[in-house]
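User: New here, any thoughts?
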Amino acid sequence: MRAITVGFLAGSLVTSFLLMIHRKISTKRDTTKDDDDAEEEEYRKLQALAQSSAASSKKNTNAAAILFRKKDKLAASSSFLTSIVHELWEYLNVAGGDKIRAAVEPSFAESLPAPLNSLRFAKIDLGTNPIRMDNVEVKQITKDGMVQVVMDMVWNGNCDIQLQADSYIGGLAFGVKNIKLSGHFSLWFRPLTNALPVIAGIQYAFINPPYLDLKFTGLAAVADMAYIDKAVRNVIASSLLVVVLPNKGLYKMQTGCNFLDAYQPPLGVCAITAVQSRGFITEKKLIGKDDIPDVYLNITLGTSAVWRTTTIHDNLAPIWNESKDFVLHDQMQKITIHAWDEDKGPLDPDDDLGYASALVGEVLLQPSRQLELELLHSQTHKKTDAYCTIQCDVLRWTTDLSSINNGDSKQVLGLLVVIINRGFNIPLERKQAASFVKMIYNKKEYQSATILDYAGVDALNPLYETSFEIPIVAGMPTSGDDARIVLQLFNATFATKDNKAENSMLGSLNFDMNLLKLADENDDHTITETRLIGECGASIEYRVSLSGVDRTASTRSSKTLRHHPPGVSPARLLPSARKKDVANGVVRKLDYGDEDEQAPTIGTVSISVIQARGLTIKQELFNIDVPDAYCRIQFGASPEVWKTSVHSNSCTPKWNESKEYPLQDHSQVISLEMWDENERSFDPDIEVGSAKTTVGKILLAGGGMELELKRQGLLTGVFVTLRCKMVDE
């Protein structure tokens, strides 16, 4: 199932970037094709009107004109990625179908019980609706040379996929007529080089598990309909996890791209605190005592295991103040909270009290790093009038390993990273080579990918390119005789009709973790080496690093977490935030009428107007008017208006001008207007358009955001780039 996402969804995006970088692609749109997106309902209504039998009337002629203007506007403002995939969809449909058939049928055989394990595809047609990439955000280059692109991936596939299970009693045939898939998708460009195409590698993953919905056809007549439906959904949903954080795929733009340079360790540790809840109600009973809820919370971060809080008995407003550490890979990872009423009877299941979710970054942006969320009904998704408050603190990795020996079972004390990069001189016939590396630590086994011999792959010098990130918790051996990592090289033997699969070990080696504490060159506690593995003549290249956790200061909302440089431990100190005194966590609204009533600040924000694009030259009666653009910015409730300099005679003005403001809350609004200056006093300046956003949105986007201006409620096609950063005192 890995090939579904790697070869189809992610492959579509990577292919788009390859084409974008190496050649310019025409993105002419088919103006006769219907667009069924609900977001374009206005467009579809106009289209139906324009194509009606009475289109010759003046009314419908006007509608047709509006239609094509609307179509042009949509095409101009849509993502270039969507446009490229739109043009390539005919080919991606075929390639994706072949990948699905080659990968999924074996997965059915391995994951489904008999007789469903005989499922096979009779037909795969992915339909005419291509994948769409919306809300594309490009984050600025980090100090260690990485660019991140985040987008919403949406697919509403009108498919025609037919499946058959011949060994099913009486035969089984059904189909999939629609697939809905949506989620936050991210691309990480790293490492960056000075040689074209500049990007050496692209890693890709969904930040959170994507929404997936399948509509089957032909199952209604099957007695086991519900069972088959659930089984197939589970296989597909679980397969998608191979490209959901912390898992990533890697596409090499340059053949010399080394996985050790492309690898990115986690951002840090996210300490989630279940603070309290309120708003629960007593269940009235006709017989017996009324039931006051016994509340506990199930909390997850991304794809993490569920953390269950203690149960607070007989309480409508329980207070926990319990914390649990999770490894954080991206600030857009989702925290999910599910409240339950514990019932003790074996025939009385726990009652569902509702759920809520928020992104880590949303919580960090709160002045006190606490956010109260309203719980929703799990079935109807309606409000329950009950609330839950959580807090987030992000802790940084450090080269100080003292934390590893101090902490409790709910704390992450450090991070062990083992990277199996590649092997050399596997002592086998090329056609028989199917090697993998098994890593054993703390009596747990981790396994790399199995590398087979096929076109373009050297199975005797295989690229495993696998990383294992192991959070260190209390009780794990990190020193002494038990602090060992075992690496074992195997060759896989696949089962046949006559023989069972028996993997043969080619060799093994032990790595002493005590060496990491001595490997303090550059303070990174990292060892990268190539060693013989056993006596078979083969060797493997690997990297082992160890980091501690700095609990002396948390990373506040005013700082953007950065990934770490390649080739070193993740223990690179992240910037700590300043402490601000905000009384009771409440920030009063600023009142400029009385200086004594100014609210406490949480810092100073620097707002920068960088550049603009999309301006056009206007043909006037006697001359050509090239824009002389300037911007007017108003921050929060301040009456002060900051005006940039005028950038004369340019359709792509660049200002790079900044101004600092005291920040009371990350929800403060930045209002921007762009004007075209006219030199003649009797000829007023012309408004180009305006836009609004908040400091918090820009900080969450990595510190930079491109805003499209509107004029009289309509998009103008003119974009302005703003940046925000917190200023150190």
